Fold this sequence. Notes:
Blueprint: H1 2-23, H2 40-78, H3 86-101, H4 110-121, H5 130-177, H6 182-236
Amino acid sequence: MLRRLRTRARAALVASSILSVSLAPIMVTTPAYAITVFDPWNYSQNILTAARTLQSITQQVTQLQNEAQMLINQARNLASLPYSSLQQLQQSVQRTQQLLQQAQNVAYDVQQIDQMFSQKYGNVPMSASDSQLISDARSRWQNTVGGLQDAMKVQAGVVGNIDTNRSQMSALVGSSQSATGALQATQAGNQLLALQAQQLADLTAVVAANGRAQALTEAERAAAAEQGREQRRRFLTPGTGYQAGNAQMFNNGNN
């Protein structure tokens, strides 16, 4: 009887074990390295690091853009003015110089002026003949007329330069206003100053030509007055001037 009870107890124990095994849930074991763990603090630190890196890159790009713009501005400031009025201004000055060099008889030369005044405009020599006095007077008159003509030619040349100066001034002002850098603006300003210097040179030429003509006119008057005194002296000198003689107004031979 006792043996039967032990056998039944063993059978019940086995059945209970089988039932517990069959009813237990099936558990799948996952390796530790395959488990994903979300760390909020580490995630925020990564975002901050990425933001700082992006900000640093943006600053570097901005700095490179500023340096590139600075180089562009420097290139503009070093760019030369594409327009030059030097040749036209030199041609205007050359034309005026040529007119001055064409001065008749009495040139713009100190030694020649001294020589001419010593020969033609100085004291009238008492030993000079009447024909010599007349020749000298005519030469002085020709010098005066030539000086007046030279002055008018210089004036005409300067007036002819006005149109050239006007076109050059318009071109230079336009170049100055459209200058892309400091060098171009400076060069345009320098050329405008050169244009002003050329105009002053023309004005100086006109003043010199007019002064020369006026000086020759006054010198001729002074020399004519001196020659007139000499001729009057000769006229009044006994034996060399006027001598009285018989004059007949009517034919009295046959009354």
